[in-house]
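User: structure tokens for Major facilitator superfamily (MFS) profile domain-containing protein, please.
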Amino acid sequence: MLNYVDRGAIASNGVNGSRKNCSGGTCSSGSGIQGDFDLTNAQDGVLSSAFMVGLLVASLIFASLAKRHNPFRLIGVGLLVWTFATAGCGASFDFWSITICRMLVGVGEASFISLAAPFIDDNAPVAQKTAWLAMFYMCIPTGIALGYVYGGLVGGTLGWRAAFWGESILMVPFVILGFVIKPLELKGFAHNRIKEYGQMLNPDVQDQINNNGTKHAMPGGINDLAGKVPKKFSFSRFGQGLMTEIGHFSKDMKELLQEKVFVINVLGYISYNFVIGSYSYWGPKAGQQIYHMVSADLMFGGITIVCGIIGTLAGGFIHDKVGSTIPNAFRLLSGATFLGAIFCFAAFCFKSLYGFIIFFSIGEILVFATQAPVNFVCLHSIKPHLRPLSMAVSTVSIHIFGDVPSSPLVGLVQDKINNWRSTALLLTSILFIAAVFWFIGMFVPSVDRFKEESEHAIPAADRSNLRPLLDDNEARTSD
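Assistant: Done. Predicted tokens:
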């Protein structure tokens, strides 16, 4: 949620501000980031998309490292980069310095977006998987909405730089948690525990050494690990390991992209995010210009908080109620998006602020109902060991083809036609494309692969006998 509070804060009028404006011989001073750095709308849109650089590079790396490293430690590393990056945003001095910091912010999202969802999917009750995912993805609209309010209040009183520094301070406890929390093992992976504990402290190695110091064969065919001395680093061995990793990654990507259900789902998600991303960034500014809202940040923040919570949770609970299957997910996705597009399009046709609020609220509830089902399809249409990669590819795709180009493009269109109502109507019409993709998904043969074997082909019975990564007290109890 704090990650998306940052997204909302930089889009708020209190932080983002407005350009210097001159008309009739008089000039008004600008405010916020746009005023201080004198940014055009197109440049301003780049700030909303810059995080994608860090996300694109880091998410695939984190998804690959999750096979051999504790995911919570990886999340801790990513959030540590995020903390320094947001602090850097507050200390930036021009367009390029804040753009670079926004790029690094994407590393934080990359660290958990591909790992948190599989963790939730592993631990959620079978009958409530989509509802649990809904609670997690509810943080997207709620975080953005809180960011509007937070940015409007803090930016308006203490200045836009203070808003970024406040976010950085708030994230510190979560960074610490990522490094100290008990190790995590995801379904579909047999993590290398030697790296987590060290060779002599590795529970599996200790179990293979009896009181006389005799070493026995380990389940994976590895013998005498405790007696081996780590080899020194060499560039040739590093290069060989890197090529091996690239080979595994290429194989996984090929297997992932052969899943038609996954591809169609992501295509719909890209179209959806193209619109929602621009809504979240340009919404307060467009609302202020079209309907002359006095407190556009608070207005959009309040609407999005309420509609985001209701819509996201409702989508998850309804999907569980009708049956957590991939075809039912596509039915919910296509129906909710189509109806939501109609209401949102109609909302921008109203000249009355009250008519806009009513129709836009209904539209937002409907479009936010897609958050849990769309990620359910991403997790269940592929094999378990591909889930972190599927979430990474999905996230990268919806950003690099969705909200990353949409915010600058909408800013460019607005610079050309100078009419926020027309710009908003053109943008909203793209939601119908998302509904069409998800409608097609209903007719594509699908299989829920959640219960399939892991990439190491460990039978379920044997997997249940593997010693979990427990702390000392739990380990003694289990012994």
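User: Anything notable?

Assistant: The radius of gyration is 24 Å.
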